[in-house]
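Page 42, continued from yesterday. The earlier attempt failed because a stray header line got pasted into the input along with the sequence. Redoing it now with the clean sequence only.
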Amino acid sequence: MDEYLWPARNVAEFAYCPRLFYLMEVEGIHLASTDTEQGNLVHRRVDRPSASNGANQSGEQLDENRPRAVRSLTLTSQTLKLTATLDLAEIEGTIAVPVEYRKGRPRDQYWTPPDDPGEDEPTPPGAEPWPTDRVQVGLQAILLEEAGYTVPEAILYYAAEKLRLRIPVDAALREEALRTLRSAQDTAEAKKRPLPLVNDPRCLRCSLQPICLPDEVNQQREISETPSPRRIWPTRDDAMHVVAQQEGVRIGVSGMALKIKDKDGEESRQIPLAGLESLAVLGGVQVSTQALHALASRNVPVAFMSAAGRLIAMVDPLDSVSADVRRAQVRAFDQPTRCLELARALIAAKIVNQRVLLQRNHSGVGDMVMEDLLTEAESARSAAGLDIIRGHEGQAAAIYFDKFAGMFKTSLAEEFDTNGRQRRPPPDPINGVLSFAYTMLANECVSALRLARLEPTLGAFHTCRPGRPALALDLMEPFRPLIADSVAVSCFNRGELTDGHFLRTAAGCAMTDSGRSAFFAAWGRRMDTEVTHPVFGYRLSYRRMLMLHARMIAAWLLGEVPTLSFLTTR
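This time it went through. C-alpha cells are written below.
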C-alpha cells in the first residue's frame, strides 16, 4: 500500500502551473533561482522548530494564557494523504491561525503599501493573495481543523511589503484547496507530464523553465498562439566549469568555496561554489569527501577522467533521475522506427556541419566534394534503416577526412594526411588532439543528458555496450565538427599547440601538461562561444546548446514534440 503523503507546498504549485507541480512532485526536479534563494532567506528565521513543553527558545517557561507562536509545525492527514510544515501557527487554546511567509508582494499590482506598515493592520483594499498562496494556507487550515483546532482565518506575510494579509477560512477556501489537491493527485497518477503553458508571463520567473522549455516545446507542437521562443533561458551564462589536471593537486572545501592546493600543499586558489556548474579532474588529482558532499548539495556533477581524458566515473546528485523520462527512453528505443527517426536527424546534421567546416577553413576544396557531402546528408535524412545511415555516415567521413588536413596551416598536417584518421593509438599530434577533444565532448554530453534526466548508456544510433555512453555518443554527432574539430583546427592554426606540446611513444602521441593546459584554454573558449539556433532564433553558448538539445530529446521521447532538429551552422 502506498503511504506517500503529498506536501501541501508542492500541491499548491498546481494552482500556479500543473506542469511545474508535476516536474517538482512527480519527477523530483528542483532548480535554484534568484527567487527561490530569496525565498529561502525569508523562511530561514521561521524554519527552526519551536521548543517543546511550553518553553521558548531560551528555555524559559511561557505564560499559559498567552497565545503560542509555534514555528515549523508539521501536520499530517492519513485520510487526505497530505502533509505540511507550517512556517508559523499562532495558537490560543483551541483557536489556531496558520501564518505562511512569502518573499514577494500580494497579487493586486495597483495596491500601494503604506510607508510604515504595522503587523496588525487590517487587510488593505485591493490586496489579494495569489492562487498558490490561497491553496497552501487553505490546506494548512484543513490540517489544523483535522487536528482538532478551530481555524477562523489564515495569514499570509508578504516580506517585500511587510504585510500581513488575512484570509478568512470559509467553505469556499476549503473547497478550492481540496479541489486543487484532488486535481494534483489525479495528474500525478496519470503518469504523464502536463503540457506547458502557452505564451504565459509566469514562465519568465519560473525556476524550472530550463527543464520545461515552454516556448520551445510549444513551437515544435505548432501552437498557433506561440510566437518565436523568448530567450528566457539562460538569462546569464557566466557559470564556471573547472578542469583540474595537474598531477598531485588536492581539492578541498572551505566555507562556500573550493580550496585548491598544489602538490607541495600550498594553496593556489579558491573557487566560489556559488558560481560553479561542473568539475572535471584528470589523472592523479585528489578530491576530498567534504568537497564531494558540498558539490553534491549544490547539484554540481564531478567527472573523474584518466590523464588521456577517458571518462572513468561521474558523481552526480541523486535527484538527476526521472522515472518518467527513463521509462519513455526505454520504451522509445525498443522501437526501431523511433531509433531510426533520431539517427536520421543526428547524422544528417553532422554531415551538414562537416561540410560547413570545410567550406570555412579549406580554400582548395572543390565543388564536387561539397556536392557529395550534401548528397550524403540528404540520403541519411531519408534512409530506411540504421545500417543504411551508418553507410552514409561512413562515406561522408571518408570524404571529410580525406580533405581534413587541408584546413591546417602547420607542417603537422602532412603527417595527418599520411596517417589518416586513426584513434587507437593516435599516431600524430592532430589525431591526438581529435581523440582528446572527442572524449571531452562525450563527457560534456554525458553531463547534459544527466541534467535532462536521460540515461547516457541507452542510445538509439550507437550500439549499447557495458560502460559505453551510447546516447552521449549519439548526441555528440552533430557537434563533432562544430566543437571538437573546430578546436583542433584553431589550436594548431593559431600556434597554441605545436609539436613541442606532444610526447611520441609506442603507446601513441599524447599531450604534455602544458599542451593540455593550452587545449583546455581553447576548449573553454569554444564552449563559451555563442551561436544562433536555426529553429528557435536565439543565441546560446555551445555548452548550453548541448543542454538544450538533450532536453529536447527528452521532450521528444515523452511525446511533447513531434520532431527533432539539431544545430547546423552556415
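Notes: DSSP finds 18 helices and 18 strands in the chain.
Reminder to self: strip header lines before submitting.
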